[in-house]
Design goal:
The chain is of the alpha+beta class. Helices cover 21% and strands 36% of the residues. The protein is built from 2 helices and 7 strands, in the order αβββββββα. Strands 1, 2, 3, 4, 5, 6 and 7 form a 7-stranded antiparallel beta sheet that branches.
Length: 127
């Protein structure tokens, strides 16, 4: 599959110039313009190059640490299964990334405390 980096770069410029303020909190799940990335790095889909992400940590109003989610069933040391909005998803722990909140577009909801705590413990033990 040919990746359209030119289209992603156009959108990335728009995101950089976006003046709206997004306030995210840990445990929240958002649609995020993850972009087109290189090699086996996870990429976004659709015209906004989006994928769902779970906010792991908020550093400040502009910078957060997220883990991308996938609906494809994945198993192994670096995947963690969660249930969110009655849908089974998998957190891709090998792809945790620090991003700007400018990449966030729509909040989908919030993961319950129990699942979030289990995911964080599992993530720390997988390092």
């Amino acid at each position: 599959m040919q990746k359209d980096f030119d289209e992603w770069n156009k959108l990335k410029k728009e995101l950089e110039n976006n003046k709206r303020k997004i306030f995210a909190n840990h445990r929240e799940v958002w649609w995020c313009s993850f972009g087109l990335n290189v090699g086996t790095e996870l990429c976004g889909k659709n015209e906004f190059f989006e994928r769902p992400v779970l906010v792991l940590k908020v550093f400040n109003k502009d910078t957060i640490k997220v883990v991308p989610l996938t609906s494809r069933e994945k198993h192994g040391k670096y995947y963690f299964e969660i249930q969110f909005n009655d849908i089974k998803s998998y957190a891709s722990l090998s792809q945790v990334k620090t991003i700007s909140t400018k990449r966030l577009s729509r909040k989908m909801g919030r993961l319950d405390k129990n699942q979030f705590t289990k995911l964080v413990v599992y993530y720390k033990n997988s390092l």
